[in-house]
Design goal:
It is built from four helices and two strands, in the order H-H-H-H-E-E. It is mainly α. A two-stranded antiparallel sheet has the order 1-2. Strand 1 and strand 2 form a beta hairpin.
């Protein structure tokens, strides 16, 4: 029975580590997305849809965090290893599903952000065209003429 308890503890620890690592990666992605959206807003892009989807993603990340914590609260019992194993499997599956939902929500935010950089650049070019006070690079035209001469004169 001690061996079963040890195996269940190892499964719990390893599964928990993987889930925590996945959650940390998603939180890091969320932070990068927030930073990027702030830059886009400063550049004049409209980020309303992306911000709304980010709020949904943050909510799903909170749910995922709660379900990951629930995995660690599964009691490891040596008297009922089968019940413990089933409870652990259920908790891990729930956490994995919650993490997948959060990842998909963040991917939707990234999809919303696609094109914002191009929109900002296009708007900058429009601003440049409208702003006559900005110095423009000088353009010069050089003309070249060639004449060929032969022994009888100019052609």
């Amino acid at each position: 029975k001690g061996d079963i308890s040890e195996r269940l503890s190892n499964i719990l620890e390893n599964s928990g580590k993987r889930l925590v690592r996945a959650l940390a990666e998603l939180n890091s992605t969320k932070t990068r997305i927030e930073t990027r959206l702030t830059k886009f807003e400063a550049a004049g892009a409209t980020t309303t849809a992306a911000r709304a989807d980010l709020a949904i993603a943050v909510s799903k990340l909170a749910t995922a965090s709660t379900t990951v914590q629930a995995v660690f609260s599964v009691p490891v019992s040596t008297t009922t290893p089968k019940t413990t194993s089933e409870a652990l499997k259920t908790a891990v599956k729930k956490a994995q599903t919650a993490i997948q939902d959060a990842r998909q929500a963040l991917m939707k935010v990234v999809a919303d952000m696609k094109g914002m950089q191009g929109d900002v650049r296009r708007e900058d070019r429009r601003e440049d065209r409208r702003d006559d006070s900005k110095p423009r690079p000088a353009t010069t035209t050089t003309s070249t003429s060639t004449t060929s001469t032969t022994s009888s004169g100019t052609i």
